[in-house]
Amino acid sequence: MKVVIIMPAYNEAENIGLMIEELFGKEFPQIKNTEMHLLVVDDFSPDGTGNIVKKYQAEYKNLHLLQKPKEGLGWAYIRGMQYAVNKLGADAVMEMDADFQHPPRFVKDMVAAFLNGADYVIGSRYIRGGSIPKEWEFSRKAVSFLGNLFIRMVLLKPQIHDLTTGFRLTRVKGVLDQIDLEHLMEPTRFAYKVDLLYQSIKNAKKVVEVPLEFASRAKEKSKFNPKEMISTFKVAIILGIKDKQKIIKFGLVGFLGYLVNAFALYLFTKLSWPGWAAWGLSTELAILSNFTWNNLWTFRDQQINGLAAIASKFLQFNLTSAGGLLIQVGVGVATDYLLGSQYRQIVLPLTIGFLVMPYNYLMYTLVIWRKKASNPK
Ligand SMILES: Nc1nc2c(ncn2[C@@H]2O[C@H](COP(=O)(O)OP(=O)(O)OP(=O)(O)O)[C@@H](O)[C@H]2O)c(=O)[nH]1
Ligand SMILES: [Mg+2]
Question: Kindly report the CA angle at 323 between 306 and 271, in degrees rounded to 5?
Fold first, then answer.
């Protein structure tokens, strides 16, 4: 396995030499069964960061240098990743800063998690064993903690504790190679990290958080500013809405299904059809409407095509819909028995909203329009 650490460094002359020595002298030798590489991405720093790296290259053959014009933090990482994958043949890439905020001693834990099968490893400040700098003033601690909590909520990723960390490892096959790196959001800024994390989590089958004791900048001159913060929140909110588009469409299709059901029932009643036929056909029409519109619209990206496939999926759809019916009738009868029938008009929407709709959504995403496992080249 080959792991390449991508390390952007702009005017890090004070740090980069020490960092190279710690990684190659102390940390890499402790990591077994893995070829460790370091790729420094320098945007022709005026302080000569690049020349320092060149000097060390004579000593360490796994030390690489990529120099390019200055375009901001996101591009430095993106170009580094592309270089690591295409030129160095990396199996995994790591994002790591040069200013010792990501202490080198945590590299081996990240790599160990990868060797244990993780597709995406997050250096996490907000799990047991992780921390943010004690010397940070209260306001910065609060912004970091609350901002992270906010992003966890808008992205609906409560199971992950640190969504804004900069210290991460990504498997190339199946995760990084599925991401369009040329079109990340906010590629000049810190905020690119949120988009990249979001897409990586989507692709990764196994995500692992490893504790990170985040340090303050070795040479203290923080560039932490409101512009970076706002763009980070912006990216999170846009991704959060994108994520919920499916749920909104699903809800609208469900509502249309209800209208179809109600209108057909009204019509068949007018025609004096027998009860079983009026209820039966109007319900089936609603199911047909739900299936059709969800297939054409909500789950367009997993669309079912071809007559045979549609017929068999529609049959399956009827079966899962019957499950929803069972839930509704079961809860209805049980609450009738427990509370009396005077609460039916409250029980009905609550059952639909909190049980039947989530059940349907689960069935749609896990059974009917199930995503096919991605097939990395
Ligand atoms: N190549 C390159 N590296 C950059 C650029 N901006 C930042 N870096 C490096 O990326 C890493 C992270 O940047 P920092 O400036 O430390 O950002 P930060 O950690 O969010 O903020 P600080 O509190 O100031 O440390 C450091 O190693 C920087 O040297 C850039 O435009 N180009
Ligand atoms: Mg920093």
Answer: 80
Please indicate whether residue 219, judged by its CB atom, sits closer than 6 Å to ligand 1: no
Rounded CA gap, 342 and 340, in Å?
6
Q: Tell me how many helices (H) and strands (E) the chain has.
A: 11, 7
Nearest CA to ligand 1 atom 5: 73
- Is the shortest distance between the CB of 72 and ligand 1 below 6 Å? yes
- Per the document, the length of the chain is 377
Under 8 Å between Cβ of 5 and 107: yes
Does 186 contact ligand 1 (Cβ within 6 A)?
no
Q: What is the identity of the amino acid at 252?
A: L
Structure tokens at 141: 């601690």
Residue 212 near residue 148 (C-beta atoms within 8 A):
no
Note down pLDDT in tens along the chain; length 377 residues. Answer: 999 999 999 999 999 999 999 999 999 999 999 999 999 999 999 999 999 999 999 999 999 999 999 999 999 999 999 999 999 999 999 999 999 999 999 999 999 999 999 999 999 999 999 999 998 888 889 988 998 998 988 887 888 999 999 999 999 999 999 999 999 999 999 999 999 999 999 999 999 999 999 998 765 566 668 888 899 999 999 998 887 888 899 999 999 998 998 899 999 999 999 888 998 899 899 999 999 999 999 999 889 999 999 999 999 999 999 999 899 889 989 999 999 888 888 888 888 888 988 899 989 988 999 876 544 43
Distance 189 CA to ligand 1 centre (A): 10
Residues 6+ apart with CB under 8 A from 341: none
Helix (H, G, I), strand (E, B) or coil at 372: coil
Angle, helix 307-339 to helix 275-293, in steps of 10 degrees:
120
Domain 2-224 fold: Spore Coat Polysaccharide Biosynthesis Protein SpsA; Chain A (3.90.550)
Q: Residue for token digits 């303050």?
A: 216
Write down the pTM of the prediction.
Answer: 0.76
**Ligand 1, closest atom to CA 12?**
29
Q: Which long-range contacts (CB under 8 A, 24 or more apart) does 177-181 make?
A: 177/85, 177/376, 177/377, 178/203, 178/374, 178/376, 179/203, 181/78, 181/81, 181/82
C-alpha–C-alpha distance, residues 289 and 346, integer Å: 26
